Amino acid sequence: METSFIVKDLDLFYGDKQALKKINMELYKNKVTAFIGPSGCGKSTFLRCLNRMNDLIEGCKIVGTIEKDGVNIYSSKTDIVDLRTKVGMVFQKPNPFPMSIFDNVAYGPRCQGLKDKKHLEEIVTKALKQAALYEEVKDRLNESALGLSGGQQQRLCIARCIAMEPEVILMDEPTSALDPIATAKIEELIEELKNDYTIIIVTHSMQQASRISDYTAFFLLGEVVEFDNTKLVFSTPKDKRTEDYITGRFG
Amino acid sequence: MQVNKKYIKKNKTIDSIYKYFFMAMAILASSFIVLLVLFVFTKGISPFLSGYEYGQVNFFDFLFGLTYRQDKGIYGVGFIIINTFISAFAALIISFPISVLTALFIVKIAPKNLSKVMQTIVELLASIPSIVYGVFAGGVITGIVKDLALLFGVSTAGGSSLLAVVILLAIMIFPTITSLSISAIQAVDKDLEQASLALGATKTQTNFKIVLIAAKSGIFAGAILGIGRAFGEATAVAMVAGNKLFGPTFNPFDITRTLTTTMLAGLKETSGLDYDIRFSVGLVLMVVIFVSNYILNLVKKKVGNM
Amino acid sequence: MSTKIKDKILNTITYFASGISVFVLGAVLVFLFSKGFSTLNWDLIVNNYWSQNLLGTVDSVGGDYTISEEVDGIYSARWGIALKDNVNSQKEKVIEVTYIHPESPLKTMLSSSAGDNNKEITLEDGYTIQKIDIVTSDGIPTFTGKIMSQDAATVISNIDSAQKITSIYYKTTGGGIRSSLITTLYLIVISLVIALPIGVCSAIYLHEYASKSKLNKLIRQGIETLTGVPSIVYGLMGVTVLFPVTQLFGATTTSILLGGLTMSIILLPTIMKSTEEALIVVPQSLRDGSLSLGATKSQTIFKVVLPCAVNGILTGVLLSIGRVIGESAALIYTMGTFINDSPKLLSQGTTLSLMIWSFMSGEQPNFELASAISIIILVIVLVLNFIVKAIAKKFTKNFA
């Protein structure tokens, strides 16, 4: 199986506090990998390492390597902008920009210097269709994105992300702010997207992880306790702590 | 998406150019204070140096002198410094209790609608430019002072007097102190009040004994800002001060002279000692403000810890 | 004393303290309006401050300009002019033109003043008559008018009985604030053109880029210190630091440009503060979203952050305009106090506030005009503050 990321001995510190301890992991291409664990366990922090969003946080220090296509993304050779065009991200709370639906989706390509209007229209349409949003918004592409419902906003953020045609999509609890119906729609969407993209998702809900993911990593106190095929993790966990967590004894 | 490498590179260059551009602007903005201090200092100190082109002035005569007569070339600002302190602190003494009580009224005591109206009034008072207060002082405050003086059997110079300056400054620093006190009182922890009420204190007792004490640090900060404004206020004060030639002035009905009014008085030439000495006065003003700010901040720390 | 009574007394004291501020605001407004309201009119806004002296050649024997309607003052049907005794804004007695017939020989004349010889000049309502050269019925050339300390009635009877009028010497209306309004506008534009980019860019640097390095702390400290400097000291800085800059543009004295430059430094902290407050409110998730799409930091700032912060920047601009209109001390040093009817970038001039200063620091304070201008300033400042509040209200709604 092809790998998308190879993580080796990754440590992460916020000032003096160590938030991630010796993470080793291989993330596979065109699969859905879920990160689960109690809040504060480091799963979101680790996710943000994969497109270097932690660089924005002051006092954050990273040791170890994350290889993508054979190159350490933390080496000086890697261009951070280039990396982020290949590794897109969807956030916990829908965060559409205060501009029109069209401009939201066209934002990324435009930042890369794409100006041709026809080409942009094609990209936007394609991305909205892929995100299963096109039919709902096709008549109001020029209206503000802030007028959409929460679930629509989140799908717009996914469309915005796939407009860049990334290789990987990182999702940081993408459904935690949504109602069950909107959540179901997003989960359906993830199922479809995994044919074209590698998806790594942080989730609070174990049901969600077991429903949609191929692989699952269980995080606890900044460490990866267990990482394996989702079915195996949920049916026959190797570690006692994993078992306790998924059977609801803590967390 | 197929990314254009050349574009990314160009983009990256533009990005770092912007960063340095923003940084340069920030450095430029903050360098003005350096330029200001540097130039006012050099120019202000020049009359005391030997070889000064209009004749050297003795620094100690300047700093401790009790007469300031441009016509005779006598420049002593000692009494002016004292006058400045007297007027500013007298204004603070009048304004401080009124401001704090008004702030308490707005936040805790007034009914909601009245509180809104009062807050708007304080904001309006804050937005009136000082020159307009000057016109008001020249037309109304001087009149009141004149009548008051007659009551005591004293005659004034048309009402221009220390008292007029003090009343004017008290009015002008009122909105400053009040609005800071309002924020300070609003920031007081609700639990603290609840605790006091739970112990059987009345609402009013809580307001005066708990809320005001808890907000004292913020209220004090307002007082510091207010006195800074009182020191630096120029045009309005100049309209009612009267510019006495010697002093210091302790009689409230006598005319007075502050550092700022001295800087504005008889500004006709743009060169010569008479002009340059204004920079020395400006320098003294800045020192007065910074030193009193420093001392008051020390006091504030002490008060805050009590 | 019982607690209840004590409480009541304390509460009453706070009512009383608050009453003082109501009283002060009321007193300020009542004073300004009672003194200045009657002076407020459209002429005040459009007229020059200094009146112009004009000499016009008439050489006419008059005609018949009888009118049916009543006019103010005493009307001469032969000359088509009505005159009235009045007092001008400088409190001098004048003979004012209250009506002039459109076909009157005195309406349009050729100028015979040195300098603009043979230029067409007109006599308008509100102008004041200084002297009228006439030839009496006996053929003796003489003159009549204010310089003979005559009143309007005498002048009318003199010109009615004269053989002809040879020339007329009159003053245009002055006492207006047109030039100060223009100067104020100049100052607003100059200071904002400079302060806005510097202020906004510095705020962006401090909020979006600056780490907690020593240099950045120093920068912040410097800008905060600027806030505490009284404006009169900025005036001193203007004439020492910035005057050489204006010399590069050809300035020889203090000038509007120098005032504008000085003002721009005074405005910096205001603009920076309101910009930074607006930047703080922009949700971090929007920045993250933009960066995760591969936008660079500057792209994120220009395309996402600044559009969200535009209200805050606008607030800073409005507050700055208010500050420019109200500023006086710093400008006395940098622009002079001479009221200049044709203000230019490199000439001296007065803003509305400086004009007040110039009236009030004279021998005879002119409270009427000063109050009238104060009312204008107050109205502008209050409107600005009202808009700022309205923006703030909308702003908090957007991000709540």
From TrEMBL, chain A:
Signal sequence, start to end: none
UniProt entry keywords in alphabetical sequence: ATP-binding, Cell membrane, Membrane, Nucleotide-binding, Phosphate transport, Translocase, Transport
Gene Ontology MF term list: ATP binding; ATP hydrolysis activity; phosphate transmembrane transporter activity
Main location: membrane
Alphabetical list of SUPFAM superfamilies matching this protein: P-loop containing nucleoside triphosphate hydrolases
Recorded superkingdom: Bacteria
A single BP term in Gene Ontology: phosphate ion transmembrane transport
Subcellular location per the Swiss-Prot or TrEMBL entry: Cell inner membrane
Stretches assigned to coiled coil: none
Topology with respect to the bilayer: Peripheral membrane protein
Occurrences of domain ABC transporter (ranges): 5-246
This protein's GO CC annotations: plasma membrane
Free-text function comment from the UniProt entry: Part of the ABC transporter complex PstSACB involved in phosphate import. Responsible for energy coupling to the transport system.
Protein name: Phosphate transport system ATP-binding protein
Biological classification of the source: Bacteria, Bacillati, Bacillota, Erysipelotrichia, Erysipelotrichales
From TrEMBL, chain B:
TM region positions: 20-41, 74-107, 119-144, 150-174, 210-231, 277-296
Subcellular location: Cell membrane
Membrane topology: Multi-pass membrane protein
Keyword field: Cell membrane, Membrane, Phosphate transport, Transmembrane, Transmembrane helix, Transport
Cellular component terms per the entry's GO annotation: plasma membrane
Protein name, UniProt field: Phosphate transport system permease protein
GO biological-process terms attached to the record: phosphate ion transport
Presence of the UniProt keyword Transferase in the record: no
Keyword Hydrolase: no
General function of this protein: Part of the binding-protein-dependent transport system for phosphate; probably responsible for the translocation of the substrate across the membrane.
Database matches in Pfam families: BPD_transp_1 (PF00528)
Main location per the UniProt record: membrane
Residues in coiled coil: none
GO molecular function: phosphate transmembrane transporter activity
Similarity comment: family membership: Belongs to the binding-protein-dependent transport system permease family. CysTW subfamily.
Domain ABC transmembrane type-1, chain residue ranges per copy: 81-296
From TrEMBL, chain C:
GO BP annotation list: phosphate ion transmembrane transport
Membrane topology note: Multi-pass membrane protein
CDD domains listed in its UniProt record: TM_PBP2
Membrane spanning stretches: 12-33, 185-206, 226-243, 249-268, 304-325, 369-388
Domain of life: Bacteria
Subcellular location: Cell membrane
Classification via Gene3D superfamilies: MetI-like
Cellular component annotations (GO), alphabetically ordered: plasma membrane
Keywords, sorted A to Z: Cell membrane, Membrane, Transmembrane, Transmembrane helix, Transport
Gene Ontology MF terms: phosphate transmembrane transporter activity
Main location, first listed in the record: membrane
Domain ABC transmembrane type-1: 181-388
Entry's family note: Belongs to the binding-protein-dependent transport system permease family. CysTW subfamily.
UniProt name for this protein: Phosphate transport system permease protein PstA
Lineage: Bacteria, Bacillati, Bacillota, Erysipelotrichia, Erysipelotrichales
